[in-house]
Amino acid sequence: PPASDYQAENATVSQGAVEANHTGFTGTGFVNYDNVIGSYVEWSIPAATAGNVSVAIRYANGVANGASVDRPMDVTVNGTLVRSALSFPSTGNWDTWQTVTLTVGLSAGTNRIRAIATTASGGPNVDRLSTGVPGDTAPPTA
Ligand code: GCU
């Protein structure tokens, strides 16, 4: 399918805050997950028909408390766990963004894709979820 971007700041956030105090995000900001297990962002993704789609989650994971640590997240689609503790490795600093890509099966209609922190560090800072564009790390154009 063609590329579609879904900004984290427009998604449903549980235990997190929309912020814009680092550079390089797209849209108007990013979600800073609270540093707890279970914090999440959930996107609503429309699909005309059922099928597999490539999903890229764009994130930054810098230094916290003097350390660079992985911030793995579970991914669920419509409530079903599809990836357990998917790795979101350090990006070096909070202004450097990378993508983690995965392929998920969607149903026809509106799909709920949720990325849930699995450690007490919480999730990384999350900029957006894109469908149909594996490896997209394009910087903001404005
Ligand atoms: C820093 C950083 C935040 C980040 C946080 C964290 O405070 O500025 O953007 O979310 O660390 O460790 O989660």
From TrEMBL:
It comes from Dactylosporangium maewongense. Residues 4-132 form the CBM6 domain. Coiled coil: none annotated. This is PQQ-dependent sugar dehydrogenase. Residues 124-142 are annotated as: Disordered. It comes from the Bacteria. The chain holds residues 144 to 285 of 793 of the full protein.
